Amino acid sequence: MSNFTRVYFPGLGIDFDLPSVAFTIGSYDIHFYGIIIAFGFMLAVLYGGRMAQVAYEPGRDDGCAHLGYGLRYRLRSGILCDF
Description:
Elements: E1 4-9, E2 14-19, E3 21-25, E4 28-31, H1 32-55, H2 69-77
């Protein structure tokens, strides 16, 4: 197994070898795909937090009850399960 991955863009005429291991901490190898997945998860958490702040309306008495409205509608209308 090679420690490098060949990346090429035939339409652009660009090709290069990318090492599969970004860096090593002790005896643990940190791979590029792990960094990309962690970065994507971090962006999703930040985006979700921002959207939760936008959806929050100060002064509502129901707290987080509005989050379940869509699920309750689907349950009542039989979309998720047929009563």
